[in-house]
Amino acid sequence: KAGVTQTPRYLIKTRGQQVTLSCSPISGHRSVSWYQQTPGQGLQFLFEYFSETQRNKGNFPGRFSGRQFSNSRSEMNVSTLELGDSALYLCASSPGYSGNTIYFGEGSWLTVV
Amino acid sequence: DQQVKQNSPSLSVQEGRISILNCDYTNSMFDYFLWYKKYPAEGPTFLISISSIKDKNEDGRFTVFLNKSAKHLSLHIVPSQPGDSAVYFCAASNAGGTSYGKLTFGQGTILTVHP
Q1: How does residue A7 score in pLDDT terms, banded at 50, 70 and 90?
Q2: Helix and strand totals (H; E) in chain A
């Protein structure tokens, strides 16, 4: 069974640009969530989508957005990139119900210069 | 406000001995807890979880203990192996509500197992 797949794995963007990251969850999983990991702030929750609807949202500015498609694949977008957005962005999937294990992808490394 | 805390940034253990990693939480709404292992530049790998209706869960060399009254959980690894060397994260969620898709993580503990 394929795991959580994230693309691209590495990317470099310039300040002010926007970026889109993609995530394919484990087959049959309906929940996709996104996390940001930085050395200073650790792993922080961005948002969660379940059946194409945003179900939970973390404390990030509106420049961070996401969506989920009918096949459960998800994308997250960051607009007007800032240097502080440089981080490892992790996607996680689960069936989406109480007590389900949440599995993570390998992450997308974003560097903003 | 750090709702999940791992107060030990690092832990060093000899191969074959027990590793005990600790985690404290402050949010009484948390009722589902998970431990992940992480290598640099990789995603977290799920190890073991526990629901608040239990006080212990075992899976092979890994055992998680939950003390709800103290809002404390611990991960025991027995016996420890050099391949266990990694960063270990404790995570919590409110599985009984609608936030079970949202994990709150501790800051992590670096475990080093010496041969």
Answers
A1: very high
A2: 0, 11
| CA–CA dist B93, B52 (Å, integer) | 11
Average pLDDT score over chain B: 94
Best CA proximity match to B95, nearest among B45, B47, B51: B51
Q: Which residue of A has its CA nearest to B34?
A: A101
CB distance A104–B46 less than 8 Å? yes
What's the alpha-carbon Rg for chain A, to the nearest Å? 13
Q: Which of A77-81, B15-19, B27-31 has the lowest mean pLDDT?
A: B27-31
Question: Which pair of structure tokens corresponds to residue A20?
Answer: 């889109």
Among candidates B8, B27, B109, which has minimal Cα distance to B68? Answer: B27
How far, in Å, CA of A24 to CA of A1, rounded? Answer: 13
Tell me whether residues A98 and B100 touch, CB distance under 8 A. yes
Token look-up 């027990």 returns B18
C-beta separation of B55 from B69 below 8 A: no
pLDDT in tens, B47-75: 999 999 999 999 999 999 999 999 999 99
Rounded CA gap, A25 and A92, in Å? 7
pLDDT, residue B53, reads: 93
Inter-chain CB proximity A88 and B41 less than 8 Å: yes
Return the amino acid letter for A36.
Q
Average pLDDT over every residue of A2-11: 94
The three-class DSSP label of residue A83 is: helix
